[in-house]
């Protein structure tokens, strides 16, 4: 008997409407937190440079932890989507239960460890002094939100896997909306609340994260599945997570190295690098929403035993992502003179920004294919391949060029040449893997060799 899950017709009809039906709400989830962080910065910034610097240091600590644990969303989506495709919704939701347990346990360990080492961490990042003291107070409070952040990641993961993408957007927006209301109230002491200054930002974050976390737990409770821990499933999730963490660390090494080298070329260079990098991050989030649609649909197709449909979806989503990337390239090419002026009028920064701009434009079409195929391979549970490919691209493409740019004084052009090389090597790797078809292994379980 064939599994009762996604029908072949339904999978083959995964056209623009269905793809966008997953991608658009997912994009909302992806951009909601960065937008809130900008609001948080604006509120805290009115307290002065010291508070803003403390927030920046604290956010680096919390953001680094969160970034390295995104396997709770991406890995859970891959596993839940396969079960959903096979017609096993209960099994898909149970993947979310186990991912939630992993998130809570790992989150509590992180809280304990970083609370112990919070003083030296803040001191190293801030260079000691008043900034470290400001950051320490924020971190002590905000850290308690880590298990809640990981609960939300796990919730996003299983709900994407069953193609329920509207409720996660609601849960995230409700939590961040509450944080946005509380932040100025607690920071400035409005409406009779105590004036907590920077600590108020951390409390507002924590309350909003608590609301989102509770909503995701409520979604699990409504499914009526067993909430008991299942160690074998949790171990399988951690194996998949290990590969995704290594892949994520490769990205972190690249971008931290780029910032460190840019800083050695002067303030104008690092400012221009940071400006264009933020635009790149915005494009990455936009394209990542299509990649998540690919991940969800490919996982469902393979879970349903529809290898042909999975390959057709891979081609279709990659094509749409590439078209969208080319449109973005055209927009940013047309705005090459005007867009940087929205952020700065410093002549030196603008000069270096215009130099970087053409590397930036060259990367966007490459990203259209790379991000989509990343999503395809993640949906197939091919995390081990992605880990190895990303490491090779970083070690063979990016890092040699960036350090040579420092030695031979190539400036920001050398840094962004390294980023282009990193993307091109990833493109070659994922294209070769996609064409080989070795990733397309059917079944409700993520194949052990894929992870």
UniProtKB/TrEMBL annotation:
<feature type="transmembrane region" description="Helical">
    <location>
        <begin position="138"/>
        <end position="159"/>
    </location>
</feature>
<feature type="transmembrane region" description="Helical">
    <location>
        <begin position="99"/>
        <end position="126"/>
    </location>
</feature>
<keyword id="KW-0813">Transport</keyword>
<feature type="transmembrane region" description="Helical">
    <location>
        <begin position="244"/>
        <end position="267"/>
    </location>
</feature>
<feature type="transmembrane region" description="Helical">
    <location>
        <begin position="203"/>
        <end position="221"/>
    </location>
</feature>
<comment type="similarity">
    <text>Belongs to the multi antimicrobial extrusion (MATE) (TC 2.A.66.1) family.</text>
</comment>
<feature type="transmembrane region" description="Helical">
    <location>
        <begin position="410"/>
        <end position="432"/>
    </location>
</feature>
<feature type="transmembrane region" description="Helical">
    <location>
        <begin position="355"/>
        <end position="377"/>
    </location>
</feature>
<dbReference type="InterPro" id="IPR044644">
    <property type="entry name" value="DinF-like"/>
</dbReference>
<keyword id="KW-1133">Transmembrane helix</keyword>
<keyword id="KW-0812">Transmembrane</keyword>
<dbReference type="InterPro" id="IPR002528">
    <property type="entry name" value="MATE_fam"/>
</dbReference>
<dbReference type="Pfam" id="PF01554">
    <property type="entry name" value="MatE"/>
</dbReference>
<protein>
    <submittedName>
        <fullName>MATE family efflux transporter</fullName>
    </submittedName>
</protein>
<keyword id="KW-1003">Cell membrane</keyword>
<feature type="transmembrane region" description="Helical">
    <location>
        <begin position="384"/>
        <end position="404"/>
    </location>
</feature>
<feature type="transmembrane region" description="Helical">
    <location>
        <begin position="51"/>
        <end position="74"/>
    </location>
</feature>
<keyword id="KW-0472">Membrane</keyword>
<dbReference type="InterPro" id="IPR048279">
    <property type="entry name" value="MdtK-like"/>
</dbReference>
<feature type="transmembrane region" description="Helical">
    <location>
        <begin position="171"/>
        <end position="191"/>
    </location>
</feature>
<feature type="transmembrane region" description="Helical">
    <location>
        <begin position="19"/>
        <end position="39"/>
    </location>
</feature>
<feature type="transmembrane region" description="Helical">
    <location>
        <begin position="323"/>
        <end position="343"/>
    </location>
</feature>
<feature type="transmembrane region" description="Helical">
    <location>
        <begin position="279"/>
        <end position="302"/>
    </location>
</feature>
